[in-house]
Design a protein that fits this description.
Blueprint lengths: L1 H22 L3 E2 L11 E2 L5 H12 L1 H27 L4 H19 L1 H4 L5 H17 L6 H20 L6 H17 L9 H23 L9 H16 L12 H8 L4 H21 L4 H26 L3
Antiparallel strand pairs: 1-2
Helix pairs in contact: 1-2, 1-8, 2-3, 2-8, 3-4, 3-9, 4-6, 4-9, 6-9, 7-8, 7-9, 7-12, 10-13, 11-13
Length: about 325
Amino acid sequence: MEYILVTIILFVSILMYFKIADRYNIIDKPNHRSAHTQITLRGGGIIFPIAFIIFCLFNLNETIQDYWSFGLGLLAICTISFVDDVRTLSNKIRLSVHLISVVLLLYFTGAFTLMPFWVWPILFVIIIGTLNAYNFMDGINGMTGVYSLVTLGSLAYINKDVIQFTNENFILYPILACLVFLFFNFRKKAKCFAGDVGSMGIGFWVIGLITLLIMRTGEYKYILLLSIYGMEVVLTITERILLKENIFEAHRRHLYQLFANEKKVSHLIVSSVYAVCQLLVNIFLIHSELPLWAVILIIFIPAGGIYLGLKWSLKKEYNL
């Protein structure tokens, strides 16, 4: 009953946001980098911080004590991202808030206590890099929602059947938010896009859960729950560096962009393929007892080879 009520509240909340976005012209206009051609409401990902607020209300006794730092970090990064969706902010302001949010996230997960101080800067770089990867990959209908759903579902399975590392609802609420968001986004003509508030919000939540799991278990393999995103972003950045391009400028060199824009493959198919690939990785990852180096090789050698082969083929076909 609780989850049905939460789902209804999330539906009502996003429908109310649509009215606000429509009134104040919070829209996404197609540009040279876009994989869409129609003006669409932006910021539908506001449902993710709303999901956390609902989580707090339904779990009031423990949220203040256990989740205050995570909540402040999430709301800070979502607020600055939403403002950036509406009006462009300077990189210094955004990065400053990101750093504060990551500090709060690491405090929440106990990293400052469990990890030596010299590891802290590495964690900062990894988390901020992963947050931006989430943002880079949010370019076609369904991608952010379906991919996050797979990762959150894997985390829910781990929490229930492998090792309990957090409150079950702390995973189920963002799953419900993903499902509601996908109802409006997983379409040929999406009703809304996540916006930075969505990609950063759900990215922060997923990264928080994975970091919490790693800190509880000491198993660094769980960072590979985001390995498909990670491989795509690292290889694309490497490609752009080799081509002497400015990696901070917008582009259309991601493999998913080539399939959606040049090959004209359905956004929903491309998003689903990425999610299924990550699901297969997660199944292997969760049940494998191999050492970490072997797991990395088994995942990245075939995945990287397929990725590079597909990209080379598309670039040759379209003279890119």
